[in-house]
Design brief:
heterodimer; A: alpha/beta; six-stranded mixed β-sheet; 10 helices; B: alpha/beta; four-stranded antiparallel β-sheet
């Protein structure tokens, strides 16, 4: 099986400061990888490099494109990369406001992604948007409301619907449950898990919440000061951590 | 089905003066299809540790742990996950589930994961829950709200929903009443008759005597105190 994403030796510096260094891994179709680490450990920098939002200083990110097989997304032309970002990729931002068009209705936010990949029939677009709002548990009568009138949790669910409506193969998520209260988090996690399984999505989830990765991720990558210190099966890394930093991280979680 | 050769395990506590604690050495075990092997030994002797290593939950320091042709001690995460989906089941002592998922779904999930049809999976789940005396009115609720005993029975139902060719059982009969204990023992016997290779920890000696073909004392694998 060809990996969906082959990442090798990604390094990114901000001037003399290190963002992340020598990160390599393969992600296979249907796999969900979690990246954990404290603030400033380089996890968001890495995610940005993988998703084509930041230009790394070294390394390669090969994505298995539908048409031509593995392609380096870093050397790809801008229109090609944008096409990928609209079709095969999705990016769920920590702050839903950054991933949504706040001045456009909920239905419009979802429909816009469909139009970007060529859908033109109004009825079809509206039906699909409605179907997706239903899947993320936003009721039909809120379809024409703007996201400004939504709660934080609803905005996050809307952002997920907007991102997944085009049937991407790879989803990047940056702290998808950050800043939400726990009951909303549980609902969102349940939703994400169902969608990942139903659609066979591959995903890379950056978070500092170990409970989130335990539920969602197959594999885990632990980062510290820009370096990857440990990788492995999620439950193995959490239950039998090998690196000192991971041990500290796991033992620091408060028990409820 | 399950072959363990020369397995050792150490824990290194980096944040407690980098203490290295050897907990297991030269562990060997072989379990054939249709056979049930009991791990025995005092509390802390390493029964659960060995079981967790077989499941890939703990990392072996050295040696081979081959389950259905996959060396768990070396395999990539996705191969271990595939093994856990198709070959290797584990009934732990505690139920760990996603909040909000109904009990019936929790039990049916392993079947759905191997591509069983939804209807058949839910039917099998209902059958098991009935046998384990979980009343039908609770099936639509999340087991997170259940009593300890009920959660344990849900956990067992989930573990036996799909006929794994290899199965790990950690105290499946602990704290069950006589009736439910009987059901669990017959589930184990049915799994054996189906050809499952089983490794179990049973503190209940009568249960052990009934379903297990032989005993392995893990104290034999305890490293000698230096």
């Amino acid at each position: 099986m060809t990996p969906l994403l082959q990442v090798s030796d990604i390094s990114k510096f901000y001037g003399v400061r290190l963002g992340c260094r020598d990160v390599s891994f393969d992600l296979f179709p249907g796999e969900v990888m979690g990246i954990v680490g404290e603030s400033g450990s380089g996890k968001s920098t890495l995610l940005g490099c993988l998703a084509g939002q930041l230009a790394p200083d070294t390394g390669e990110v090969l994505f298995d494109t539908r048409a031509e097989g593995p392609h380096d997304t870093l050397t790809m032309s801008e229109p090609e990369r944008r096409m990928l970002a609209r079709t095969d990729w999705a990016f769920v931002q920590q702050h839903a406001r950054e991933g949504l068009r706040m001045g456009v209705s909920a239905g419009g936010n979802v429909g816009e992604r469909l139009m970007a990949v060529g859908a033109r029939h109004y009825g079809d677009i509206r039906d699909q948007a409605l179907d997706w709002l239903g899947r993320v548990e936003i009721s039909e009568d809120r379809m024409d409301d703007k996201p400004t009138a939504f709660s934080g949790g609803m905005q996050q669910r809307l952002q997920i619907a907007r991102n997944l409506v085009t049937g991407p193969r790879l989803v990047f998520m940056d702290e998808p449950t950050g800043g939400l209260d726990v009951s909303v988090q549980a609902r969102l996690l349940d939703l994400l898990r169902g969608l990942v399984r139903e659609m066979g999505l591959s995903a890379i989830i950056v978070t500092h919440d170990l409970a989130v990765v335990r539920l969602l991720a197959d594999r885990l990558m632990v980062m510290k000061d820009g370096h990857v210190v440990e990788t492995g099966l999620t439950d193995q890394v959490l239950d039998d951590p090998q690196h000192g930093y991971t041990q500290l991280l796991v033992s620091s979680v408060l028990q409820v | 089905m399950i072959e363990i050769e020369n397995v050792s395990k150490t824990f290194t506590l980096h944040n407690q003066g980098s203490a290295v604690i050897p907990v297991m050495e030269r562990a060997n075990l072989s379990v054939q299809p249709g056979e049930c092997v009991a791990l025995i030994g005092a509390s802390g002797a390493g029964k659960s540790t060995l079981m967790r290593m077989i499941y890939g939950n703990y990392l072996a320091a050295s040696g081979r742990i081959v389950v259905g042709g996959v060396d768990v001690a070396q395999a990539a995460p996705r191969d271990i996950l595939a093994l856990r989906r198709q070959t290797l089941g584990y009934v732990s002592q505690f139920l760990r589930v996603v909040p909000r998922v109904p009990t019936l779904e929790v039990v049916a999930e392993p079947l759905l994961m191997v591509g069983e049809g939804r209807e058949a999976a839910l039917e099998r789940a209902g059958e098991l829950l009935t046998r384990l005396n979980i009343p039908e009115r609770l099936w639509g609720l999340s087991p997170t709200t259940f009593s300890g005993g009920e959660q344990q029975r849900v956990n067992i139902a989930r573990g036996f929903a799909y006929a794994y060719p290899a199965l790990l059982l950690d105290e499946p009969t602990a704290s069950l009443d006589a009736h439910n204990r009987e059901t669990v023992l017959s589930l184990v016997e049915e799994a054996k008759a189906n050809g499952a290779a089983i490794v179990g920890i049973f503190h209940d000696e009568a249960a052990r005597g009934r379903v297990c073909d032989r005993e392995v004392n893990v104290t034999a694998f305890t490293p000698e105190a230096a």
